């Protein structure tokens, strides 16, 4: 039986349990990313505060993912999706405060597709960070994949004329 602290850590690490999806938990976890960003944007915070929150989520994620992996006794359990969720704050950096006529839903769909591509494909240096054990590796590979996705999202939106 897990204690309350372990249960809380696993609740966070698994994205409120969505990481327990029987198939493609990372994909399901990534679907929560835009909702997190929408929640942050609701407070209409200044862009520097958004960037600070992105870093704070990374650091919290290092702890939560590391502890979650230890509790489960695995290096990088598929059910841990906090990394995918938090990384979306990076993916959507190009658009969070950019005036655009485009619908946030469509931008989120494009961002989601780019992020999943890079998170699954793991081009260099994503794969390098994926090989790091513990919370740092669990979080870092997704944040690097998110940087690739953010660049491609920005380019896509320019090509679509939404910028």
Automatic annotation (TrEMBL):
Location of the YutG/PgpA domain = 12-154
GO MF term set: phosphatidylglycerophosphatase activity
Q: Which GO terms describe its biological process?
A: lipid metabolic process
**SUPFAM superfamilies per the UniProt record, alphabetical:** YutG-like (SSF101307)
Q: What class of enzyme is it?
A: hydrolase
The answer, when asked if Transmembrane is one of the entry's keywords, is yes
TM segment ranges: 45-66, 104-121, 142-162
Which Pfam families does this UniProt record tie to the protein?
Answer: PgpA
User: InterPro entries this protein is in?
Assistant: PgpA, PgpA-like_sf, YutG/PgpA
* Keyword tags: Hydrolase, Membrane, Transmembrane, Transmembrane helix
Q: What is its EC number?
A: 3.1.3.27
Q: Which PANTHER family match?
A: PHOSPHATIDYLGLYCEROPHOSPHATASE A
Q: What name is this protein filed under?
A: Phosphatidylglycerophosphatase A
């Amino acid at each position: 039986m897990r204690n309350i602290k372990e249960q809380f850590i696993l609740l966070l690490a698994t994205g409120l349990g969505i990481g327990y999806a029987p198939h493609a938990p990372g994909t399901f976890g990534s679907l929560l990313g835009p909702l997190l960003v929408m929640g942050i944007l609701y407070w209409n915070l200044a862009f520097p505060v958004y960037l600070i929150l992105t870093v704070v989520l990374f650091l919290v994620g290092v702890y939560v993912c590391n502890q979650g992996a230890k509790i489960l006794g695995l290096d990088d359990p598929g059910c841990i999706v906090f990394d995918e969720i938090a990384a979306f704050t990076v993916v959507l950096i190009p658009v969070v405060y950019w005036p655009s006529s485009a619908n946030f839903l469509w931008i989120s769909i494009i961002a989601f597709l780019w992020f999943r591509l890079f998170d699954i494909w793991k081009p260099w240096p994503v794969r390098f960070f994926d090989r790091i054990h513990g919370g740092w590796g669990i979080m870092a590979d997704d944040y690097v994949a998110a940087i690739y996705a953010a660049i491609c999202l920005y380019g896509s939106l320019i090509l679509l004329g939404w910028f």
